């Protein structure tokens, strides 16, 4: 855990001296603003981080050539902050500007190019554009395999991110293989309680769950939780992630009391640490809604799914798969409540999104067609 307060004080002192001794457009001033922005970004103060990085960019634009690597660094850092703010369109634009500069000025295998491809891939994934996410992460991996040692942590990052993209695309075997390669590197290069190991166990657990192997999924998520409980503060978002994922496994195993308890622990942490429109809050509301539905408490289920949908409508593109998930889940609750017109409307919305964004053989498309069929059947339209 970094000592961000001390780091911030040091960077602010450096900025104060630079302001007194250097011209207002000197690159050293920009470097200080950049360092301050990076600390604020790590502490979750994204608005101040963005302001600091934008001040750095303004100075670089005045004092450096248009293709200078310093400008690319500023665009990259601004992109990272926008991504943390869930402003994916601005994040993508910023990372693409960084990439454009780096492509013009750096060798084709330069590590900074891999960083840009990696960051662009992560934004595409958050936007639900999984094919572009996969392509970008594969470009990053290709560069890193040519320039880094076989056990370098950045290689593990690339394998991890490729695994996430494959998982989102429903290719679970490829996802599992990629995540296991990431874990293998991390086990060789990291201490046994390193957060990156927890990340790998977490992601492998998610894939096992999608493959229906719930005992292995639960085992992996508990390994991730054990590491995080030893290394993270009690309100750390990663702990919330572990509670959430363990809750999801308990739900599909039919253990609804433990599922609800785990998801409520995740929600409690997220409400204390995240903005009111953060996507992880929507995930918690969604998952609690699923458990309530399984327990037959449809009023609470509908309430939580609607909270999830409200957040997702504010922050995600109109065709994002998570919006389809929310509409689908709301439709299922309405069907269980015998409100077939609202059930049909919700499932139709889910289907329309999935038809636009998923491959014709994706299991979620089949799920939508199945759910619409069930509603027609309930309405007596055979």
Q: How many H/I helices?
A: 18
- The rounded Rg comes to 23 Å
Reported for the largest beta sheet, the result is:
none
Model regions low in confidence, pLDDT < 50 over at least 5 residues: none
| Helicity range | over 70%
Note the overall shape.
Answer: globular
Structural class: mainly alpha
**What is the typical, i.e. mean, pLDDT?**
95
Q: What's the helix-strand series?
A: HHHHHHHHHHHHHHHHHH
Number of β-strand runs: 0
Distance between the termini: 60 Å
Approximate strand percentage: under 5%
Fill in the keyword field for this structure.
382 residues, mainly alpha, globular
What do you see in this structure?
- The protein is an all-alpha fold.
- It has a domain at 6-34 and 47-77 and 89-99.
- The mean pLDDT is 95.
- The protein contains 18 helices and no strands.
- The chain has helices at residues 4-21, 27-43, 46-63, 69-84, 88-105, 111-126, 130-147, 153-168, 172-189, 195-210, 214-231, 237-252, 256-273, 279-294, 298-315, 321-336, 340-357, 363-378.
Task: Describe the secondary-structure layout.
Elements: H1 4-21, H2 27-43, H3 46-63, H4 69-84, H5 88-105, H6 111-126, H7 130-147, H8 153-168, H9 172-189, H10 195-210, H11 214-231, H12 237-252, H13 256-273, H14 279-294, H15 298-315, H16 321-336, H17 340-357, H18 363-378
In short:
Helices cover about 80% and strands about 0% of the residues. It contains 18 helices and no strands.
């Amino acid at each position: 855990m970094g000592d961000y307060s001390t780091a911030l004080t040091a960077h602010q002192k450096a900025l104060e001296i630079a302001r007194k001794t250097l011209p207002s457009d000197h690159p050293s001033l920009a470097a200080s603003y950049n360092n301050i922005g990076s600390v604020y970004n790590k502490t979750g103060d994204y608005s101040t981080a963005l302001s600091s990085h934008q001040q750095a960019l303004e100075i670089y634009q005045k004092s450096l050539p248009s293709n200078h690597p310093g400008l690319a660094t500023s665009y990259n850092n601004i992109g990272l902050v926008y991504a943390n703010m869930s402003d994916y369109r601005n994040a993508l634009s910023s990372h693409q500007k960084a990439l454009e500069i780096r492509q013009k000025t750096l060798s084709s295998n330069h590590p900074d190019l891999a960083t840009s491809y990696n960051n662009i891939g992560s934004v595409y994934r958050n936007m639900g554009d999984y094919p572009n996410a996969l392509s970008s992460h594969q470009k990053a991996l290709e560069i890193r395999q040519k320039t880094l040692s076989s056990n370098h942590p950045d290689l593990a990052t690339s394998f991890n991110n490729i695994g996430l993209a494959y998982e989102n695309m429903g290719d679970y075997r490829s996802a599992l293989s990629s995540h296991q390669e990431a874990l293998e590197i991390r086990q060789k290069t990291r201490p046994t309680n390193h957060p990156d190991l927890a990340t790998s166990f977490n992601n492998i657990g998610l894939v096992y769950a999608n493959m229906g192997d719930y005992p292995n999924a639960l085992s992996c998520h508990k390994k991730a939780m054990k590491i995080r409980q030893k290394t993270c503060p009690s309100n750390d978002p990663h702990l919330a992630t572990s509670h959430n994922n363990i809750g999801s496994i308990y739900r599909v195993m039919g253990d609804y009391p433990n599922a609800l308890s785990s998801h409520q622990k995740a929600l409690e942490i997220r409400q204390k640490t995240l903005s009111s429109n953060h996507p992880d809050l929507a995930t918690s509301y969604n998952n609690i809604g699923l458990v309530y539905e399984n327990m037959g408490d449809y009023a609470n289920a509908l309430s939580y799914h609607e909270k999830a949908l409200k957040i997702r409508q504010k922050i995600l593109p109109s065709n994002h798969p998570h919006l389809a998930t929310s509409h689908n889940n709301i439709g299922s609750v309405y069907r269980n409540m015998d409100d077939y017109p609202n059930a049909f409307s919700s499932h139709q919305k889910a289907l329309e999104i999935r038809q636009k964004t998923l491959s014709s053989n994706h299991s979620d498309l089949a799920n939508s067609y199945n759910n619409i069929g069930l509603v027609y059947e309930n309405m007596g339209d055979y």
